[in-house]
Design a protein that fits this description.
It contains seven helices and 13 strands. By secondary structure, it is an alpha/beta fold. Strands 1, 2, 3, 4, 6, 7, 8, 9, 10, 11 and 12 form an eleven-stranded mixed beta sheet that branches. Helix 1 (33-44) packs across helix 4 (132-144). The longest helix has 19 residues, at 58-76. The radius of gyration is 19 Å and the shape is globular. The model has no long low-confidence stretch (mean pLDDT 92).
Amino acid sequence: MKTTLVIMAAGLGSRFGEGIKQLTPVGANGEIIMDYSIHDAVEAGFERIIFVIRRDIEKEFREAIGERIEKVCDRLGVTVDCAFQALDDLPEGFSLPEGRKKPWGTCHAVLACRDLIDSPFAVINADDYYGKEAFRLVHGFLKNAESASELCMAGYILKNTLSESGGVTRGVCKVDQTGRLKRIDETRHIEKTAEGARADGVDLDPDSIVSMNMFGLPLQFMEALERGFGDFLSQMADPMTSEFLIPIFVNRLLLDGKITVKVLETHDKWFGMTYKEDTEGVREAFREYVEKGVYSSDLFSDLQ
């Protein structure tokens, strides 16, 4: 059974250049975070990569990332495709609300792949670094999953995901004794403190499990997404800003008893560039990874 990695990159700016955080060089040879995610996914065994982008950035994307990655993946026997997220890609009976500019969210990004995906798949953000362990765990789950209603989620330790530069939003998870997800509580304004973490004056357990939007999904999940998107559009609170988001949708299915979610705990450190000030810390982390041999100084050269 093949496995696919979906990389949500539609948030890239309409004109590439300085200031687009997904394209900020963080490696010694100009590598961006996405390069490391692709490396780790291929190393873990994923055989196909689908980028979700917007049609208006296709040319720039292929020139800056796509053509280079296609060459690397072709050498490694990995297929690369693009899917296009569009605001007017709506179910029959719905029309784009006048004035809507904001994307419909991460569930909608995954739906953009519905005509391409033919296997179990994982989903990640383009501008996040997840670590090698998470890709191995999620890939292993997808290869061995026995139920169409069973999902998995990479579970990160809260203290391994915080920014030194300001508050962040995390999906704080409740997990039962068997490692199954019970619910996700979207928690905003989480700040790192000397004791651990705090959100709006309330102390949080720094060892809590959190979701960083890395899920392993069965092919049948697409059907649930298509049904769910229609429900979302019928019930959304604000036609201009409401978003159809993966953690919220998974949480709803979970509470309704329609799915189970296995939490695959990883102790790798998650990196993201929520703030511009995070950039140098991310670069230093990758320098250390190269020095320790986690990555080759010539990324992808260790893959066969």
